[in-house]
């Protein structure tokens, strides 16, 4: 079956612009996670959904970042007024159960570059 | 500081040799640990996991060892192959009771021909 799909794979935007990053999880996975990975670092937690609701958004760096999952499947990570420091790979993952009990399955990420 | 870390940023081994990648964690509440492999331009790929009620788990050519006493996790890869070249991350579920995984910085494994 298909894995986690993220689009676009690369996004270049100018400082101050708005961007949306999309994630299609594995079918049937109720938990969906967003992580951010900077060069040479491990992924850092941003937010996770259980179904349609954001169960934990404590990793979002500030209020310019927002994510939705309106139908409990596809999720969109939205970044307003982008800054150069937002440049990173944004990873999405899904799991059948909670991350405490089952592995996360990651997509290949969206590489965001803010110029 | 980070709750999960690795001792070496880069590990170079000869093709065919065994490799051991180490990881230290500090959150004693963590009870689930995972090793991921990440190749350039790709997302982390699940390798093997282990729960805290175990101290060893084996997969195909890989073994994970967990020492809860010293909060240490290791990944052993037998008979390394060129395709094993990647960055390896350990991750734990100790986010203060919240869901999600905490990752270390990673070890870059280089397989020499």
Report on the architecture of this protein.
Chain A is mainly beta. Chain A has a single domain (12-96), classed as Immunoglobulin-like, CATH 2.60.40.10. Chain A has strands at residues 5-7, 10-13, 19-24, 31-37, 44-50, 53-56, 65-68, 75-79, 88-95, 105-106, 110-114. In chain A, strands 2, 4, 5, 6, 9, 10 and 11 form a 7-stranded mixed beta sheet that branches. Chain A has a 4-stranded antiparallel beta sheet with strand order 1-3-8-7, with no helix packed on it. In chain A, β4 (31-37) and β5 (44-50) form a beta hairpin. The mean pLDDT of chain A is 93. By secondary structure, chain B is mainly β. Chain B has a single domain (4-112), classed as Immunoglobulin-like (Sandwich), CATH 2.60.40. In chain B, β6 and β7 (62-67) form a beta hairpin. Chain B is 0% helix and 52% strand. In chain B, strands 2, 4, 5, 9, 10 and 11 form a 6-stranded mixed beta sheet that branches.
